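To: structure desk
From: M.T.
Subject: fold request, one chain
Message: Could you run this one when you get a chance? Sequence is below, nothing fancy, just the single chain.
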Amino acid sequence: MKWTLCTLVIAAVVLASTISAGQVKKPPAEKPKSAEPKAEEKIDGKNPSIWMKKKLDYSQNILAGVTAEDFDKIADNARAMKGLGKFEAFVRSRNAAYTRQLQTFEEINDEILRQADNDNVEGVALAFTQLTINCVNCHKVLRQHAKPAGGK
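Reply: Done. Structure tokens follow.
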């Protein structure tokens, strides 16, 4: 029991530090409040997790970095996304198919970092495309895992 509590506390600290490290200095845009998230915002039948929202923010920032050839921005957001992926792996480790997708995600994210360190915008763009495909495949796995047995 103490081990589980300790592990969860450490994971929460890692999540909090990862999220705060990737914060952009501009105030968040106000969004209309609704009790129920839109269908496209749901992940595996539930509200999107905080790490999914943050990974989307980081990936959008990577794309913005690619278009501006801002390799520091690319690397900073790829590092933040990598840290978030580590926390997510801990939380969702019981799904073997998801774990395989996450390993691929980590390898592609490492490639984004390598290409950014080499100031290679084409290499980053290619790796980012691979990352996008991995995200689509991973979300397929999550939706499949969330379906009831024998469900569509």
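Reply (cont.): The domain at 47-147 is CATH 1.20.120.10 (Four Helix Bundle (Hemerythrin (Met), subunit A)). Let me know if you need anything else for the meeting.
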